[in-house]
Every structure is written in C-alpha cells, then in structure tokens.
Amino acid sequence: MEKVLKVLRYGHHEAIVVTVDETGIPHAAAMGVRAQGRGIAIFPYINTKTYRNIVRGSPISVAFTQDSIVFCRVVVEPQELRFREGRVRGVYILDDSVDLYVEAVPEALSNHGTRASVLLKVLDAYEGCGSLIAFSRANAMLVESLVYLTKLRALAEGSFSGDRSEVGRWLEVLRYSLSIVRKLGSGELIRCANAVMDELRRLGVVI
Ligand SMILES: Cc1cc2nc3c(=O)[nH]c(=O)nc-3n(C[C@H](O)[C@H](O)[C@H](O)COP(=O)(O)O)c2cc1C
Question: Is the CB of residue 14 below 6 angstroms from any atom belonging to ligand 1?
C-alpha cells in the first residue's frame, strides 16, 4: 500500500478503472483517483456503467499509466482493448502499457448529487509492463483533450448532468490541448489527436 500512496502523492490522478458487468464482461473507463486514508477513492458519475457495475458488487482493478495513448485507446477505441484475469478472483486487468495495477473491492460508497465517491480497499498492487517516459506536455495535453471529449460525448448522448454553460470553455481547452499535441507530439500522438478530432466530428462538434 505504501507504494500506491506514493504513486498518488500529487492529489488528483488519472487512471483506468476496470469493472465487470452483469454478463461477466470487463469494462474500462478513465477515472480520477485519490489516496484517501489507507485506501484509494474514485469518483464515478452515477449515470456511468462503471458506477452501475460497482453498485452490483463488481470487483475493481485500477491501472496507473503515464502513457496517454492507453487513455486514448480506452476513450476512442474501447473495442481494441484487451483484458486478462487479475490475481484476485473475479478481477480483470487492462492488458496494455500499465505502470502499476491495483486490485480492489469497494468498501464504502457515498453519493453527492450526480457524482459518487467510492472508497476502495486495496487487495493487491503490483507493477505492470509500462515503460519509462519523460515528462511530455503533448502526452499530458492528449489526456486533457480526452477529458473534454468525454464531457461532450456525455452531453451529446444526453447523459451529462453538470453545468452546460461551461461548453464554450471546453471547446477552448480542446482547441488548445490538441494544438499542443500537434506542435510537440510524435507521429503516434498526432494520430491519437486526429482520432479525437474524428470522434468530435462524429458528435457534430466543430472546434
Ligand atoms: C482522464 C479522464 C478522467 C476522467 N475522470 C472521470 C471521473 O473521475 N469520473 C467519471 O465519472 N468520469 C470520468 N471521466 C469520463 C469517463 O471516463 C467517461 O465518461 C466514461 O465513458 C464513463 O464511464 P462508463 O464508460 O463507465 O459509462 C474521465 C475521462 C477522462 C479522459
């Protein structure tokens, strides 16, 4: 657990949460994670599949990675994701470039309006096959763009429950973050930025 708390020493972090649905199929979603006491907490909106799976009692894995391309796959190409069984019975983990896996069960759940806070009890934590990556603004900005893409997608699908007056600002952040990816990123990152643009177009969003 010490290792997990150290990895989460900067406050709010981003990770991939894997739950299992009622038919036993794993589901991945990008979620914010924080250290809380001797455990970790996640904050799913209550209209997410992740939240519904947790309420049903799904075990959980959390994948920490520095690699924005993994986040991009989860958000833009979920059909390409691969999973494998974790160490704890019933847990699935994301089979990708992951630095640290945490396997957990929900311990306490509280709702604050449209968002829940789920405290997780960590059962196991171990390193994945992620590889070192130096700090990169393009890498960070690709994740930033994905946050706003998922908000716009929720809005387009009618499941957004937050403040709609923020949309103008989201578009501005998307424009800026994607411009940094294009300016500073590798070909691989730029291809992801293009996939984000394609998805925005599909949603009818022009930036
Ligand atoms: C980096 C990042 C962080 C996110 N954090 C959260 C979060 O903390 N809670 C949440 O409900 N959705 C968050 N989202 C949006 C969800 O990943 C997205 O809406 C997801 O499709 C909803 O979950 P579901 O697939 O379980 O329905 C985040 C998205 C990104 C890209």
Answer: yes
Do 77 and 16 reside in the same domain of the chain? yes
Judge if the beta carbon of residue 31 lies within 6 A of ligand 1: yes
Residue 110 and residue 20 share a domain: yes
Q: Which of 127, 148, 163 is the endpoint of a domain?
A: 127
Q: Is the CB of 45 under 6 A from ligand 1?
A: yes
**CA 183–ligand 1 middle distance (angstroms):** 26
Residue 153, judged by CB atoms within 10 A of its CB (0-12, 13-18, 19+), counts as middle
Nearest-CA residue for ligand 1 atom 9 is 44
Q: How far is the CA of 162 from the centre of ligand 1 (A)?
A: 13
132 domain-assigned? no
Q: How far apart are CA 64 and CA 17, in angstroms?
A: 9
- Assess whether the C-beta atom of 41 lies below 6 angstroms from ligand 1: no
Q: What is the CATH number of the domain that holds 59?
A: 2.30.110.10
**Contact by Cβ (8 Å): 66, 75:** no
pLDDT in tens, the chain (207 residues): 889 999 999 999 999 999 999 999 999 999 999 999 989 999 999 999 999 999 999 999 999 999 999 999 999 999 999 999 999 999 999 999 999 999 999 999 999 889 999 999 999 999 999 999 999 999 999 999 999 999 999 999 988 777 788 999 999 999 999 999 999 999 999 999 999 999 999 999 988
Nearest to 35 by CA among 55, 10, 16: 10
**Does the residue 207 lie in any domain?**
no
Among 127, 149, 175, the domain-final residue is: 127
How far is 94 from 72, CA to CA, in rounded Å? 13
**108 falls within a domain:** yes
Structural domain range at position 26: 2-127
**How many angstroms is it from 150 CA to the middle of ligand 1?**
7
